[in-house]
From TrEMBL:
Residues 1-113, 128-151 are annotated as: Disordered. Residues 21-44 have a biased composition (Acidic residues). This is 28 kDa heat- and acid-stable phosphoprotein-like. Residues 63-140 form the Casein kinase substrate phosphoprotein PP28 domain. Residues 73-113 have a biased composition (Basic and acidic residues). Pfam families: PP28 (PF10252). InterPro entries: Casein_kinase_sb_PP28 (IPR019380), HAP28 (IPR039876). Residues 1-14 have a biased composition (Polar residues). One of its GO terms (cellular component) is cytosol. The lineage of its organism: Eukaryota, Viridiplantae, Streptophyta, Embryophyta, Tracheophyta. Coiled coil: none annotated.
């Protein structure tokens, strides 16, 4: 027995898809043209089989991970529909809003940290003013000594 490539000695079993293609469509109620209709149907079924030549007719593979691109038209979009945020996104937004609110209160001087900062700044201003006054006094005293030394 000679084996030909692509053939098998195993008996052929029908796939569900092949059985579905073999099921004939109901004929027209009119008795006329029933022969022509059957010829057309057989031509159509042959056309389907011609498309499925080679491994395409044998192997049916569907990739479950394949993402079908969804093309949405502008008219199909629902503008009023709000999308729900994930927990992380929601927490991030809440954190950002809280920070903005805190910074707003900070600028107004209403937070505890802002009060401490303002007190510290006023203390430093006071120390700098006292240091500047002391330098002026020393400079004035030095000029007086120079003036007395010239006389």
């Amino acid at each position: 027995m000679i084996a030909v490539a692509g053939t098998s000695t195993r008996p052929r079993t029908n796939n569900k898809q092949e059985v579905e293609h073999e099921v004939e469509e109901p004929e027209d109620e009119s008795g006329e043209g029933s022969e022509e209709g059957s010829e057309e149907e057989s031509d159509e079924s042959e056309g389907k089989n011609e498309k499925r030549k080679g491994t395409l007719g044998v192997i049916q593979i569907e990739n479950p991970n394949l993402v079908q691109p969804k093309s949405l038209k502008a008219r199909d979009l629902d503008v009023g529909k709000t999308t729900e945020l994930s927990r992380r996104e929601r927490e991030q937004l809440e954190k950002q809003k809280a920070h903005e609110q805190y910074m707003k209160l900070q600028e107004q001087g209403k937070t505890e940290q802002a009060r401490k900062d303002l007190a510290f700044i006023s203390l430093i201003r006071q120390q700098r003013a006292e240091a500047a006054k002391k330098r002026e006094e020393e400079r004035a005293a030095k000029e007086l000594k120079k003036a007395e030394a010239r006389k």
